[in-house]
């Protein structure tokens, strides 16, 4: 099953774009800790590219940003811009909720897709999608020495997992473009509804 | 040196079984932090399969649970069961001490074995055994934002290291089955004695 | 571009030597946490060899200490000596500042060099140099459950990044030995000046 060239290009550019928002959200978090400029850039790197790095290392694929420096460039441009803006105006974390939900969906799709192409079982593939989607945020929180929010926040990982399972199931059955769009919508809607009504899993 | 088919099968099944107990012990720890259901499943994954994942990545072998989804299935079944039971009755951490000591021994053997088969030096192999045995617990504690217990607890890593050194020494000298059984006994006895008499290394 | 055999040998031995000081500095930190002997050895391992391990895993090269046990041996000899001495006399962290700055420079060079030899872009290579230089210290602080000092300390990562960029730029242009020496001097001088005058990046 192949993507149409358009879908492949849209996925590439939108994932690159998603890195900017993940990086920005990481900078917002790091700011409260009084990290210096370099610390902020490392946090942004982990938040934006950490999940995909872990995915590629576990799947034994070439790490995606090693061969394409655009990812580092755009992540750091996003981080520096946010750092610069954040010293001038008060950025609120909730402004990033919608782009962050889109980024979560894109990373989830990219991760599940990568695992399926290596030929893993659907359960393993869906878990690799979740790792790609959430490990960046976990890494960021570990570096900030905080309890990872992803374990407590409203349906963050759950949205990712629902999406990656849907994608893994659809992959062999429907058109690739349709699989991408339905997964995007599912992850986005689960995540945004959960934030809006503050849904929680049992503890 | 080869295992008898029986030993190989016993090792496979018992390691799979060991994952249930590591997962369960991880859930017990996560419970006090009020993690949600998904958080608990990630903690269980790290506790049960994190050490072996790190081992395979460092040795540049295919990560063991990528090709065999049984590990993910059994880890999460164990985690969900424990999560369900823990909401009804008070599970005490000490009930897991004996299965946990057995899991430590099995992981240590599997890790040392994997490194020896890649052809590493005995010192490196024994350290890979320790990584496989203890890194899961370290990862779990990092995600829970606690100081890793393994560095302070009674002889946890020491039991693993003693066992992995014994196994690395015995490997080329005696029958594989004998090497497995003596390592199992050594790790188990060191660990259980240390808990019973609260033995500590110098600090 | 090749090193003269002398430079290659000097780099190998000095990096091995650098591991002793990183390990020692890790032990000094771990001591305040009342870790046991084994915990200290794991901390020393992460501090001394963690950055290079991460670099090799990300670049998909064989992990350097797997094939050459000298690294483990010298790291642990350094850790055990420091542990032993630290129980007798009060070691002050600032005695390690100069050897630690040299270690930072050597790790930075080794990391950038490794990435360039795999054929990465200069930006990626310089970032791999920083990872090799600073990830060990970050790992150590994560295991000690502290906020990574590298994000706040005076120009630690900045010194490494300045050096790795210089090295990546010089690599194809000048003699390898000249590249090594100028990078060593740059990292060392930036780091030591920053400590002396307590320079800070904007936060």
| Pattern of helices and strands of chain A | HHHHHHHH
Instruction: State the assembly state of the protein chains.
Output: homotrimer
What low-confidence regions of chain A span 5 or more consecutive residues with pLDDT below 50?
A: none
Distance between the termini of chain A: 39 Å
Q: Gyration radius of chain A, to the nearest Å?
A: 16 Å
- The chain-level mean pLDDT of chain A equals 86
Inertia-based shape of chain A: globular
Please provide the count of β strands of chain A: 0
Characterize the biggest β-sheet of chain A.
Answer: none
Question: What's a concise summary of this model?
Answer:
3 copies of one chain form a homotrimer. With 203 residues, chain A is an all-alpha fold. The first copy, chain A, has helices at 5-31, 37-59, 64-67, 70-86, 97-118, 122-143, 156-170, 176-197.
Summarize the topology.
3 copies of one chain form a homotrimer.
Chain A (H helix, E strand, L loop, with lengths): L4 H27 L5 H23 L4 H4 L2 H17 L10 H22 L3 H22 L12 H15 L5 H22 L6
Explain what the structure shows:
The structure is a homotrimer of 203-residue chains. By secondary structure, chain A is mainly α. The first copy, chain A, has helices spanning 5-31, 37-59, 64-67, 70-86, 97-118, 122-143, 156-170, 176-197. The first copy, chain A, has one domain (5-197). Chain A contains 8 helices and no strands. In chain A, helix 1 crosses helix 2 (37-59) and helix 5 (97-118) packs across helix 8 (176-197). Chain B binds chain C through residues 57-60, 118, 120-121, 123-124, 127, 134, 138, 142, 145-148, 150-152, 157-158, 161, 200-203, and chain C through 30, 33-39, 42-43, 45, 53, 57, 60, 62-63, 65-67, 69, 72-73, 87, 142-145.
């Amino acid at each position: 099953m192949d993507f149409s060239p358009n879908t492949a290009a849209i996925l590439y550019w939108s994932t690159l774009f998603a890195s900017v928002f993940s990086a920005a959200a990481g900078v917002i978090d790091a700011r409260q800790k009084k990290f210096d400029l370099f610390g902020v850039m490392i946090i942004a790197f982990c938040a934006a590219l950490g999940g995909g790095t872990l995915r590629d290392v576990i799947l034994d694929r070439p790490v995606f940003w090693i061969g394409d420096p655009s990812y580092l460039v755009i992540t750091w441009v996003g981080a520096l811009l946010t750092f610069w803006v954040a010293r001038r105006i008060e950025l609120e974390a909730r402004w990033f909720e919608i782009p962050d939900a889109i980024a979560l969906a894109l990373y989830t799709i990219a991760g599940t897709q990568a695992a399926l192409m290596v030929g893993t079982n659907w359960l393993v593939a869906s878990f690799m999608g979740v790792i790609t989607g959430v490990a960046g945020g976990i890494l960021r929180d570990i570096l900030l020495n905080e309890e990872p929010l992803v374990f407590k926040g409203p349906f963050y990982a759950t949205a990712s997992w629902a999406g990656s399972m849907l994608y893994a199931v659809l992959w062999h059955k429907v058109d690739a473009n349709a699989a991408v769009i339905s997964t995007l919508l599912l992850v986005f809607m689960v995540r945004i509804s959960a934030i809006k009504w503050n849904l929680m899993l049992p503890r």
